[in-house]
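User: Please predict the structure of the protein below. I'd like the answer in structure-token form so I can feed it into my own downstream comparison script.

Assistant: Understood. Taking the following sequence of 91 residues as input:
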Amino acid sequence: MVVIIVGMVVIVVSMIVIVVGMVVIVVVVVMIIVVVVMIIVVVVMIIVGMVMIIVGMVMIIVGMVVIVVGMVVIVVGMVVIVVGMVVIVVG
């Protein structure tokens, strides 16, 4: 009789251990998935950052070109003013 009770207790304990083991496995798998997702997010953020840097550099270059064009327009305007004044004086 005692042997039967001990056997049943051992079976119950082993079932509990199996359940705990399955829970641990599930937790580990979930943690691995979370880590993989975090890695993907970090990689995406790095790519976005590089794109932003490239866009910023392009914007800086465009700004410099616009400044140069503006200076050329100012010089041309001044030349036109001088020419106009000369024409007025000559005229």
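That's the full token string. The chain has one helix and no strands.
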